[in-house]
Fold this protein.
Amino acid sequence: MNRAARPLRVLVVAPSRYPLRQPHAGGLEACVWDRVRWLRTRGHDVTLCAADGSDYLGDVPEFRLPTPAWTRPEESSDTDYPLGYAGAVDAAFEAARDRLIADRHLYDVVDNHSLHPAPIRWSREAEIPVVTTLHTPPLEPLLEAAGQVRDSPHRFVAVSQATARAWSVEGVDAFVFPNGIDTEQWTRGDGGPSWVWSGRVVPEKAPHLAIEAARAVGAHLVLAGRIGDVDYFEQEVVPRLGPHARYVGPLRQPDLCRLVGSSAVALVTPMWEEPFGLVIAEALATGTPVAAFDIGGVSEVLAGMPGSATVTPGDVVALGKAAAELAARGAREPLTRVWTRRAAVRQHSLAQRYREVERVLSHTAQPVAARRAPAVSW
């Protein structure tokens, strides 16, 4: 891979809830982990601000964010925090900001993926360019922060057209920059008899509907992913497990790739405005066809993919039928997996997007580059 023309000094800010390490807590953490690894491979000087316990963390204590400490494991949640955690995160971001202000000559740009409003305001408070990637539907604290930096060196990018439209309605305009995956790690598999569902086990991802869809046509489903809502898992998923459905827990990337690649079809069942759906791109890269609910950015990720089908969100009967047809086609036409893999590499590979990533970061960092440039005398 060619090195960058001018290496950048980048502070990457990750979400604070979970460390960046495998098995990844979710698609967002996987994206940021890949971003740090890839930028460093490209020759950029990258510092990471992330949850304690993350890979790639340096020795700057102010850039280590606290993780939630739950009294009981069954209380852990992707939507709530334990008592006192929100205040601890606020204090950690204040310390990170102060360190950034003191050392802002060491950085060209902030690459912000946090769901906390503080890093957005750093473009004003630390006078440093910030690129904020919008990975979710609009969040009120982030909207408020966005309104405070309109005259600052700040740029928003969104992971899909659907996400950009949702933020635009709220007054925040963003360039569309879809997520990518490492297609050298997500390799083609040979398929198999079982179906697969992967992702965070939470109500908005609705794996229980994937079980219902598979059961409706007599298919066997394997579910993989971290439990993000224990009550939901116990009430909606566990009772549906049995001969037709098996849960294998969270898997590291190589193991997850083997599971997805050895499956006949992948089900994707969001019941919220899915911003992107990284599991879709991952499955397609293994050659495994995808049947999904058509909501949010899902149809954008599947656009032009030969092994794919979408149905109305919540329609488990239609989903089961669509998945069965894709699985049957794959069994009849083995080359379908090859074509699916090739299309996914063209559309979703990180290698296809690295110049765009660097272009956005470099263009946003220009004010800092100008300040560093020596004065010209006439």
User: Anything to note?
Assistant: The chain has two domains: 9-177+353-372, 195-348. DSSP finds 13 helices and 13 strands in the chain. Confidence is low (pLDDT under 50) at residues 369-378.
